[in-house]
Design brief:
This protein is α/β, with parallel strands linked by helices and about 270 residues long. The strands form three sheets. A seven-stranded antiparallel beta sheet has the order 4-3-7-1-2-6-5. Strands 10-9-8-11-12-15 form a six-stranded mixed beta sheet, with helices on both faces. A two-stranded antiparallel sheet has the order 13-14. Helix 6 runs parallel beside helix 7. The structure holds flavin-adenine dinucleotide and FE2/S2 (inorganic) cluster. Flavin-adenine dinucleotide (FAD) binds next to strand 4, strand 6 and helix 3. The site of flavin-adenine dinucleotide has 21 residues, from strand 4, strand 6 and helix 3.
Length: about 270
């Protein structure tokens, strides 16, 4: 996909068929674009636009929150934080979007995995849900560790509780679960059971804590990184992150990386 001509061959149109305002600037959108969910894997993403205005010509990256190949649909869970997501939040059923995807490497679930932990803060939970569903399908036990500023910013908690063996919450204001670091709960569990893989998304702070715990408890750990993206397909190099093996493109070699490879103090 390094050749720009390939962009046209992977550009596709999708139709918005559902738009739900969850709360506090969080929205869920369902898009019909049959080709994309056929190929999509947990942890991959799409580049999306529905804007034609001059100052906003770049597509924006969004992870798959729900993948339904049989229905030809996928969902995105997103937070309205700027111009693009505002336009998306104002869209109507039937509106068309332009898409490139599925993109990126997605999450790896190593063979013989028996127990995983999923650690997320706020909207970071979005790409982890399909991973949890896939893990559950494979008979893997899931321990979930969720944090947010306050209770009503804890997303998808019912869904997560229904898939997880145990779910732990922390909120900054103590409105749900404990106050403090969600990785404190993770360490408690790591002392009791062998967790094969820990997954997280978005927050550098969480990923750094997980890296420190990894040194002590020796598990595999993967982080899905978020960077500003322009092309999403590996050509512009605008999304590079420093790793132990040099600079890597988050859109192409990522967004999922082993935590020990990422250099966080840049
Ligand atoms: C692989 C990947 C998957 C993603 N999946 C999701 C998802 O499932 N749900 C979701 O809500 N968001 C997701 N994001 C983030 C999403 O792409 C941005 O929120 C979106 O591009 C914002 O567009 P905007 O035009 O509304 O905001 P802009 O007007 O472009 O930006 C508003 C503010 O947010 C900051 N910002 C924008 N994008 C990022 C970013 N990637 N990292 C840090 N700061 C940023 C800007 O610097 C600015 O301060 C993902 C990002 C990546 C790289
Ligand atoms: S966004 Fe262009 S190389 Fe990653």
């Amino acid at each position: 996909m390094e050749n720009p001509r390939d962009i046209n061959s992977i550009l596709t149109k999708g139709k918005i068929i559902e738009q739900v305002n969850l709360s506090n600037n969080y929205h869920k959108i369902k898009i019909k674009a049959p080709q994309i969910p056929q190929e999509a894997k947990p942890g991959q993403f799409v580049m999306l636009s529905k804007w034609k205005i001059k100052e906003l010509f770049l597509k924006r990256p969004f992870s798959f929150y729900n993948i339904e190949p049989n229905l030809g649909t996928f969902d995105i869970l997103y937070k309205n934080i700027g111009k693009g997501t505002q336009i998306l939040a104002e869209s109507k059923i039937g509106d068309l979007v332009e898409l490139i995807g599925p993109l990126g490497n997605g999450f790896n679930i190593p063979e013989n995995t028996r127990k995983v932990a999923v650690v997320a803060r706020g909207i970071g939970v979005a790409p982890l849900i399909p991973l949890m569903l896939e893990s559950k399908k494979r008979g893997i036990e899931i321990y979930s560790f969720l944090s947010a500023q306050t209770e009503n910013l804890l997303l998808c908690s019912n869904k997560i509780e229904s898939i997880s063996r145990e779910t732990f919450y922390t909120t900054d204001d103590g409105t749900k679960g404990a106050k403090g670091k969600v990785t404190g709960f993770l360490e408690k569990i790591l002392k009791e059971i062998v967790v094969d893989v820990v997954y997280t998304c978005g927050s550098k702070r969480l990923a750094k804590h997980i890296r420190n715990l990894q040194k002590k408890y020796n598990f595999l750990a993967f982080v899905s990184l978020e960077e500003h993206m322009a092309c999403g397909i590996g050509t512009c190099k605008g999304c590079v992150r420093k790793t132990k093996y040099g600079y890597k493109r988050v859109c192409k070699e990522g967004p999922v990386f082993p935590v020990e490879e990422v250099i966080f103090n840049d």
